[in-house]
Amino acid sequence: MMQLLVIVLNKLECLDKLLTALEEEHIPGATILDSRGMAQQLEGHDELRFLGSLRMLMNPAHKENKMIFMVLDGEKVRTVSRVVNEVTGGLDQPDSGILFTVPISYVEGLGKYQ
């Protein structure tokens, strides 16, 4: 079954190495978007200033992240997970990112990526 795999990558310094490692595993075709978390967005709001303060304690340099979208065969999910964890040092580490999948019941236009 096809899956939409989403990676929210907080460790921006890992992006190029991650994409290269995925390509080496024959997993091409990712779409990458700039994104921001809720704490980053609300940082300047006076009534929610404590969220910004909390973020500054956790990672003062972290202002944005990248969302990586991939449509792939479900059998490749474990490979992507392994690569992401190797490159980032582990998604179980604070402020590294998250990875999740959503089942896809229909897809068109994948062409050579299938």
Automatic annotation (TrEMBL):
Signal peptide: none annotated. Gene3D superfamilies: 3.30.70.120. It comes from the Bacteria. InterPro entries: N-reg_PII, N-reg_PII-like_a/b, N-reg_PII/ATP_PRibTrfase_C. This is P-II family nitrogen regulator.
